[in-house]
Each structure stands twice: as structure tokens, then as C-alpha cells.
Amino acid sequence: MTLTLTPPSSEQTWTRVCAVHDILPGTGVCALVQGEQVAVFRVAGRVFALGNRDPFTGANVLARGLTGSKGDTLKVASPLLKHAFDLETGLSLDDPAVMVPTYAVRVEGGDVWIGSRG
Amino acid sequence: MIQAIPQTQLPHVVIVGNGMVGHRLVDNLRAGAEANTLSITVISEETRLAYDRVRLSAHFDDDCPDLSLATADGYEEQGVHVAWGRATAVNRDSRTVNVTGKTGEQTLAYDALVFATGSFPFVPPTPGRDAAGCFVYRTLGDLDAIRTAAQDAKTGVVIGGGLLGLEAAGALRKLGLETHVVEFAPHPMPAQLDAEGGALLKRIIEDMGIGVHTSRATSEVSTDDAGRVTALVFADGSRLETDLVVFSAGIRPRDDLARACGLTVGERGGIQIDDRCVTSDPAVYAVGECALHGGWVYGLVAPGYAMAKVAAANLLADLGLSGPTDARFIGADMSTKLKLLGVEVGSFGDAKGQTPDARSVSLSDNVRGTYSKLVLSPDGTRVLGGLLVGDTARYGDLLDLALSGTPLTVPPETLIVPPLPGGEALPVSTNALVCSCENVRTNTLVSAIEGGCRDVAGLKKCTGAGTGCGGCVPSMHSLLQLELRRLGETVVNHICEHFPHSRQELFNLIRVKGHRTWDEVLGAHGTGLGCETCKPAVASILATLHNEYVLKAEHAPLQDTNDAFLANIQKNGTYSVVPRVPGGEITAEGLIAIGAVARKYGLSCKITGGQRIDLLGAQRDDLPAIWGDLIAAGFESGHAYGKSLRTVKSCVGSTWCRYGVQDSTGLAVRLELRYRGLRSPHKIKSGVSGCTRECAEARGKDFGVIATEKGWNLYVGGNGGVTPRHAVLLAADLDEETLIRTIDRFLMFYVRTADRLQRTSTWLENLEGGLDYLRGVIMDDTLGICADLDAAMARHVDSYFDEWAAALADPTSHARFRTFVNSDARDNGVQWVNERGQIRPASLHELIPLPMAGGDD
């Protein structure tokens, strides 16, 4: 079931994907947002959303990656070949030419809302 | 049209032939003269550029192995022109060479000409040798022809038991043919081996199921009415029925073109060259197997490479492109180290002891299946040559002793006794040969490290060492560590940036402080948020110590995907499930049940290398249901993933086998059930063989057990993988209880003290004091920790539970297996292709493009 709501800002369409407590701290889940697979992570008290497709392998697996940090950067490592991505920017930490899309996130009343691709 | 050669004022080198040596010459020339100073043309008769002929047999392992040494694009980048075709005539007066190709004829003018025409296989004038079904083994084209013919053949014979003949036999065997080798001499590899080494090699090859017929002269290839091969007839009248014959009776230099243009050739063939690799015409050079130097034609690639280097230096000097040079080819060492059919064979220097009054020491080990011999100077102080069959680990060191002529400082027999793990290394010269493929010595590597190389990859790039067979990479690694320490650089053993500790230190900290969760461990000893390196390592340590359910909320975020989903992730993000089959023993009902699960969920099946059945292609959503069905049929899933015990392989043992002396299957089942679920620094495998025939390949495992008349022999520290190791004997003739107690302690001691991802073999090698020390700790309790180790294993065994059943029973974990948190849809990126009757993941180019849904609709 997918709920769609049109918020005040007309450019952004927001979709409620789950409750925050549906995501175990330090892990990710995958949500289907208007046909796109979005990896939603709960790390260090914040929620991040990236495309779920690992660009190095073509498999939809990023939500299953291990999260962590490299210096001050929060990251997720793809479970297949361990390529890491910056949770805030979607940039690959292994190859600066590669990135995954990021999505706007709102947490309201304990619910996680994902905006269209940023 | 054949590629036009630009008219240019640059000096022009034409190289006839683009084999391995011809290609090396191109590289050497280009290294000394860039494209704007020297024009180079190679004439290639084969339809592809240089490839690694030494690894020709890899062609049978893999449909399209990358054997290429050169590519058309690469040559173009280097400014090297290729004339496709065959050189048909050389006019030395006008300095031109004619080339005939598919598209016509062209004439190339040269300033310097190099023959790199190689050799052709010698086929003895045996009647019937041209029959359909007769082949030679030289080019990729030959291999393709053999492969095609093998489809309709059952039996194949190789005539010639030399290096290439055995290589060809291996290829026939890989094609599924019943394979025989026929050799005129009394044993295989007569050019390299003595009678004893040859006899051992013959035995090893026969044990592989290849027929070896020595002291046989083939008098005729007999054929049927259609002119197809049916059998070989020998001089004594006996016959060997066969469908296919491969001649591998030696090579002959290809010197016909050189002969025709009046160059001096040897009586028995070969283009005569001097030490500068120049022929009887100062503008013409020759290198490789077509050349005759000092009465020798070298049929190996290493001397060819040496000639290419010398020829390039002299050629550049002769054309005025470099200063004078004293580069000379002064003959080459005929040392060979090979892995033939999986048997290691090495031969160097005066291997057969032909030096007058030479002495020798040899060690023939029928248990290990090895033979080593050193030929010594008459006074016994220097190594002149040697032979190694079955184990060539010391080849580089011994070859080095022979080449350097260094006086021995130890009794020679100690040089051929196999080393104990952690034991003293062989004393060698300070500038030992590390990589014999690329001829790189210690000094070169040390300079590279001093010059800034900080890893093995850098050393490879910088020195070329380790880029051939790769056998020296572990030595390079040790040397690197040693040098970095010597240079005063800290060799950091920290697990990652989040913990200033090694895995062993972390293990001890967690154990002593009694931490039970990640938050406690990170809070007390770490910084940051952790990462994909330290999280699974801590998860593994916690699991070893407490064996709690890994998907408990506080442990779940630490698990790498396989532990997180209790199954093995595959390339397209689906998982495979491998039901546990302890010891490989399974009932008919069990087989049917597994088959039914595979059919129900559309899974692809594959028997694994460890006596289990892999069920591939499971969608994450289906995993709990698959486990439920397996549990209902009496199975649990198995650890086909993560760092834990995988399988204990076994043969049928005394229960069924006419040779078996103990119940190997029964013991394997007991061991697998005892150690299942044990988390460790690296995956652990085991095997139990019911007799010394070793059908379970127990010595290739972390711990292997082999039955004796009196009990069990325990071997430890073996592994397969990239650097295979044989496990070494820890204790002999143990009764079952002592055996299990010893394995318990071995495993626990390893789990506590090894580094992350360190296999038992490297752990044992790095253990100060080696095998004796290990024996002391776990058998004689020299550290007084055995009671602790025993208790730790008892705790593991007692606390084991079926994690898959636990996941099924835990309602909170079910949600984790859904593909989407907000939808019941499946991953539409998972697409299958049918192959040999089962599914496989679609490759990127086979994927059906998915509609880009999003903001537009």
C-alpha cells in the first residue's frame, strides 16, 4: 500500500514509506516510491534515502549494505563488492565519477516520508 | 587492402613473426625508441597477435581465456604497424621482404630485419601420420581442431612424453577423453628427469587415470577404410586403440625463409646467431626458437626473452638510436619449473649429474609423493643442479644456489627436507631470486620498496615480479613486511580506522571486559560509527564468545548481508540456500525433499565442491518459507556463507570401501554437528578420509583427519583457494576422544588468536615456534589454557541452536525478509535467463530495460 500526499510545495511529491521504528538503528530498508527502489537508512539519529541500485554491479542491494563512517562522512557499503557511498550526497567513496541518486526525506510524527529524486 | 606502411625517413625495423618472443622484442624496442624515432612493423601469420602459448591449455579451462599479450589497438597506440600475412621472400641486397596475405602481396623495405619465426612441431615419419584424427599441439588453431575432433572421440593418445606432450595429455583429459601418453624413453620428461624422478612422475600421472606407455616406439598409425585413426601399432607388434592422436615429439626451428635468402643455418637447423643475436648478415637478427646459438636451439620462452632483450639493445645501437652497448646473449640456463597436469616439476642446472665426479643427495618421499635431488660439486660444497618432482616450493632458492655457485653453509641434505611451518627458512644468498618467471631478485624488490612501493600491487607494477605464474606473491608479501619494519615504518595491524587494535587484541578485550554488545565495544574501545570491516569482526567475536541469535536487535546491524539474511547473496541480489548435509550423507527421502523445495521455489541446483546441494536464486521474501519446508523435511539450512564452519567432507570409509580402515563418514557427521555454527576469523573446512588414499582430500582443509590402522591422524593448516596448502601432521594414531579434544583446542586457539580473515595456514605459519609450539599449547598444555579452551568449545556445542528455525519463530525478524518496507512487490531488477535447463541471473546486456518510473507520470 502506498500513500501519496501533495504538500504545500507543488514541485515535491511526498510518499510515506514506513514508521521510523520500522528501521532498526544502523540499518536500512528498501521502499518503493512511485516505481523507484529507494534505500532508506537510519544512522546516527538521522534518516537518509538513496537509490537502491548499486551502480558497480547493477543489483538492487544498497539497502542491505552495512552502514558506518569514514572520518566524518556517513556511509553505506554495498553488500556485493563493498563499494561505499556517502549517505548525504550519494557520491561513491571509491570512484568520484560514480554516484547514486539521493531523495529528500522528512520525518514527521514518527513517520518517514520520501520526496521525489533530488 | 593491407595496411600501408607510411613512407618515412625513420629507420624501419621489420620483425617476422609475432609470437611471445617477437612481441617481447617489440616491447623492448619501444622501451628504447619512441614512435617518432623508430618505425616498427611486425609480420603476423596467425590471424591474431601474440598470445601466451605457455598457457595454451587454459584454453580448455575457459572458453575465452585472455591469453593475449598484444592487441591491434595496443600496437596502434605504440605506433607499431602490423602486416597480416606470411613473409615469403627476403632480398638482402635491396633490404626488402615480401609478405603475402589474404588481400594480396606487399613489399616492405627494412633497415633491420629480425627473424622471430619460432618453431614448428616435429612429426616423425610414421606411416599413417597424416590420417584424419592426427594433430599437433602448437597454436590456438590446433587446439580448436582437437576440441572439435574430441566431440566424436572416446580415446586420445599423445605421442611424446616431454613437457608439451604432458601438457597436451592434460588438455585431452580435460576434453573428457580416455588419455594415453606414449614415450620412446623409459620414463616421461627424459630431457629433464633422471630415472627415479621420471618413475615417480609416471606413477603420479598414472594415478590421475592417464595411461603412460614408456619404452615404446610407434611404428604405424593404423586407420579404417575412411582413413580415420583407429590405433597405434608399436614396434613390438602391440596395439593401442584410439580415436585421436596428438604428435608432440619435439620442435624444429622455422628457418626455411632464412635458408632461402642465404643466411647461415645449422646442420640440424636453426638460424646461426652470434652473442649479439646477429645472423651472418649484419642487418639481420634472429631471436627465439628459430635461432641457433652456440650449437643450441632453446625451446623455452625465458631464453627467447633474454635474446629479445639483447637483440633490441644491439639493434638500437646499430641503427644509431642509442650509444654503444655490450649486451650479449651468453647462453641460457635451461631451468624449468612447471605445473604439468597439476604436478609440480622443476629441473635446473646439471640436473642429471653429468659433471665428472659430481656427487648427489636425493630424497624420495613416497608418502608425500615427492622426489628431490641435488647434484653437488665433487667436493660437495656447491650446488650444480637439481630436480624437484611433486613439490617445487624451494625451486627459486635452489636454482639461485646453483646459478650463484655460492659455497654451502649447511649440510646439503637439509636443503631438500621439507620445512616445518614456522620453522627455519632455507638459508639463501642475500640477493635471492624471488620471481623466476620475470627474473627479479631481492635487491630489485628492496630498492622498489625503498623507492616508495608500499604494497604488492605496487611492487608488481614497478618490478614485474609476481606477474607471471604468481607463485612468488607470498614471498613478495613477506619481504615487503620485513623491509617496511626494517625501514622503521609502523606496520599497522589495526583492524580499521575505528579501533586501534588487531582482531586478536579486540577479542581479548571483549572477553576480559565481558562486553556483550556492539554499543559497549564501540563505546569502550572505538571511535566513529564503525564500518563494514569492524562490524562483522565484532559480530563474529561476540558470536564466538556467546553464540547468541545473530538477528537479535542489538546484533542485527553488525551482520554482513549473508549473516543478516542467513543465506548467501549472489550477484543479482538473490540468495542461495544450502541445506546442511553432515558428512555428505543423505537419504533418498532427503534428496527428494530438497528437490521438491527447489522445484516449488523455482531454484537452480548445483552440487557444491563440499558435498552439498546449492539451491540458487531464492528471493529474499521466500527465504523463511524455504527454511520452513526444509525444516519440515528434517533439514536445517547450512552455513554456506560468513566466517564459520562450512562442511566436513568424507569418503565412504570402512562402511563400504574395500580399502577403508575406519568409519570416516560417521566421524565426519560427528565433527560437522559438533562445530556447526562456530564463528571464526575465516571460513573453516574439514575432511575425513577412511584410509591413506585420501579420497576426501582432507589435507586440503583447515583440519583434516585420515584413518590409520591404529586410529586417526590429525592434519592442520591446509586450504584450497588461490594459494593452496597441504595440511601438516599434528598428531598420529589418536583415538576418537583425543582427536576431538585436540581439534576443539586447535579451533578455539585459532579463533582467539588469529587476525581478521587470516586462514589457519597463514596463522600457523606466523605462529612463533610453529607446529611444535602449537603441539605444546594444545596437547601438552604448556600455557595452561587447555581447560579454558575446552570449556569454550563445550559452551559453543551446548549453546548451538538452529538459527533458521529461530528466525522463523521470531515474528519481528519476518519483516526483514520483505523486499520492500511498503509494498509486497518483488524486485523487478531480478531477471532470469534459461541455461542448460535452469535459471541463471541475466547478464547486464541481457536485461530487459525497465521503464523509468518517477516524477513524469
Automatic annotation (TrEMBL), chain A:
Keyword Metal-binding in annotation: yes
A Pfam family this chain is assigned to: Rieske_2
Tagged with keyword Ion transport: no
Top-level lineage group: Bacteria
Domain spans labelled Rieske: 15-114
InterPro entries according to UniProt: NirD (IPR017881), Rieske-like_NirD (IPR012748), Rieske_2Fe-2S (IPR017941), Rieske_2Fe-2S_sf (IPR036922)
Keywords: 2Fe-2S, Iron, Iron-sulfur, Metal-binding, Nitrate assimilation, Oxidoreductase
Protein name: Nitrite reductase small subunit
Protein species of origin: Deinococcus aetherius
Record gene name: nirD-2
From TrEMBL, chain B:
One Pfam family hit: Fer2_BFD
SUPFAM superfamilies: FAD/NAD(P)-binding domain, Nitrite and sulphite reductase 4Fe-4S domain-like, Nitrite/Sulfite reductase N-terminal domain-like
Chain segments annotated as transmembrane: none
UniProt cofactor(s): [4Fe-4S] cluster; siroheme; FAD; [2Fe-2S] cluster
InterPro entries named among the record's database cross-references: BFD-like_2Fe2S-bd_dom, BFD-like_2Fe2S-bd_dom_sf, FAD/NAD-bd_sf, FAD/NAD-binding_dom, NasD-like, NiRdtase/SiRdtase_haem-b_fer, Nit/Sulf_reduc_fer-like_dom_sf, Nitri_red_NirB
Keywords: 2Fe-2S, 4Fe-4S, FAD, Flavoprotein, Heme, Iron, Iron-sulfur, Metal-binding, Nitrate assimilation, Oxidoreductase
Domain BFD-like [2Fe-2S]-binding: 433-481
Pathway: Nitrogen metabolism; nitrate reduction (assimilation)
Sequence ranges assigned to domain NADH-rubredoxin oxidoreductase C-terminal in this UniProt record: 335-401
Limits of the Nitrite/sulphite reductase 4Fe-4S domain: 642-767
Residue ranges annotated for the Nitrite/Sulfite reductase ferredoxin-like domain, each copy included: 570-632
Start and end residues of each FAD/NAD(P)-binding domain: 12-302
UniProt similarity note: Belongs to the nitrite and sulfite reductase 4Fe-4S domain family.
Protein name stated in the entry: Nitrite reductase large subunit
